[in-house]
Amino acid sequence: MAYLLYSLVFLTIVSGTILYLLRARWLPQFQETVAQLQDRFPRAGGLYSRLPGSNTFAGDMEAGLSSSTFDLSGNIHGNDSRGGLDDAAKREILKIMKRRRVQFDEARRMYMEQRFSANGIGADGRPKDPKFVSFS
Known about the structure:
The chain is mainly alpha-helical. The chain is built from six helices and no strands. Helix 5 (87-100) crosses helix 6. The longest helix is centred in the N-terminal third of the chain and has 20 residues, at 2-21. The protein starts with a helix and ends in an 18-residue tail after the last helix.
């Protein structure tokens, strides 16, 4: 019986070590799969729902992508013929709203800071390039 217990403990330690050492390969796929499952099966009473099928300003407003500082009602009442907000940005902002449980304005700010950082722009709006020269 002790042999079986020691074998099980040894196998668990070896498996855990292998998973830890190879986490760079399997962890991103695992996180993506979990995120897809969470999107597919939202918790009861979740704060936000999926985007409507149509790509219009009215659909964006119904999805919660509007606020007093980012008002889409002018676009809706003005019969704006454009297709609404950018789909990729909407998905990212809704993910931020859902995961971090923040309102639209805060999620939009976080999204823009991520975009600025990815493009080499600091939080203050100035480039992070060390060769940048500004005359003010």
